[in-house]
Specification:
Elements: H1 2-26, H2 32-53, H3 65-82, H4 88-109, H5 116-133, H6 143-163, H7 169-185, H8 197-221, H9 227-233, H10 236-248, H11 255-272
Helix pairs in contact: 1-4, 1-8, 1-10, 2-3, 2-7, 2-8, 3-6, 3-7, 4-5, 4-6, 4-10, 4-11, 5-11, 7-8
Amino acid sequence: MRLILMTCMTMIAFASNSVLTRWAVDGGHIDPNSFAVIRVLAGAVVLCTIVVLRQGKLPLWRKSRIAGVISLSAYMVGFSLAYLTLDAGLGALILFGVVQMTMFFHGIRTGVGPSGRQISGAGLAFVGLLLALWPGPGGAADLVGASFMVAAGVGWGIYSIVGRGGADPLASTAANFLLCLPLMAVLLVGVQPNFGITGVVLAVLCGGLTSGLGYAMWYTVLPRLSNSTAAIVQLSVPILAIFAGALILNENIAALTIIAAALVLGGIMLAITSRSAPADRS
């Protein structure tokens, strides 16, 4: 029962990242750059504190750290900028789909031959992504916002690939957040920050609570889940974000978004339940 509860709380935390970011940025409470920087700072503080309290060490100087820091920065910046125009649920759907597609194509590139079922699932999910990204009249997404979220998804996909198989993923994440700060601070150079207390609070909650503690919970339950279960439970994140966006932010759930979600999530489930399918451990 405890495992189920912690898993559910983790998925809610991941979905909350989209809702909090949309609330803060689209609501005009803070500019996207400042939000991203504060989010990373809060996440670094929480994650590093957890590592220190459990008497662990921060693996700051590793060869993979450069790729991890750059990809994490791309995710953070793209994620914040995307929510200037995208609804919370649609953004989460695009992010999730792009992450999975990135990892799928990486598997092909590294010689992991996909099964027919995986190819069918990936094709279905790709069609769903095209619908979600379709701009203009009748389309669900703003093209600029969708482009930023695609960049965020590629960044998080690469981050997941680089960090896969690490001895201590929580400590590695803490180190990446910490080293990401100087790179993120460059975003504020020559830019006039614009934020109020509400925006700062939302950024701290997103970084410290739903990101920092969310990742800590995820890496606690992850060893107790099978690869397929870990991948399947993450299918709930876009759905939770879609309904939370409607309930909390009064966002409309467009028919095209529902169709896109069904195709993306159905395709991913088809692919990841194949025996050789890799799981996303982000």
